[in-house]
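fyi for ur records
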Amino acid sequence: MYQFGEEINYSIELLSPDNMKLLGDFSCGNESIDHYLHKRALEDTKNVCYLCRICDTNKIIGFASLACSGIYYKVDQYLETIPAIQISYFAVDAQIQKLPYDKMDLHYYFSDVFLCGILEKCREISDKYAGAEYIVLYAVPDAKHFYQRNLFQDYTEFMQRDHTRYLEGCIPMFMEL
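which gave:
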């Protein structure tokens, strides 16, 4: 296995029927997220799924699903929807999650690098297609610090969060593009 993330030659590519077979034993340690990737991601018309693949071995070590979204901003009776891209799912294989990127900073992980790659995809989508102003996500409590470290913030008092059973316990966060 790898000692540092910088040793991994990887690519980020769209999920397709051709690379679906590469998912193999991918597991981030969360059954619900693993189920989504293995059983629902390819057919999900609301999200576009990206895979992080080790080029040498074709092993999938991460994935992210992106969707169009918005932030509902409400002050008194004024309500505005601000365009955003939502990271619906972001996961890294459990074996890679705490892999330091290099020996210079043992608290900067390959997961951070992969997230930066997904943020670049969001910027590209915004610039070319959607004109989004923000990236939003709903962090599971264990991941809040990870997203804060990568410059996401909690919603402000004027931002309205989505209310669905699936998001119970999750923390709405945003980043300005």
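The beta strands are 10-14, 48-54, 60-75, 78-92, 100-102, 105-109, 134-139, 153-154, 159-160, 171-176. thats all i got for now
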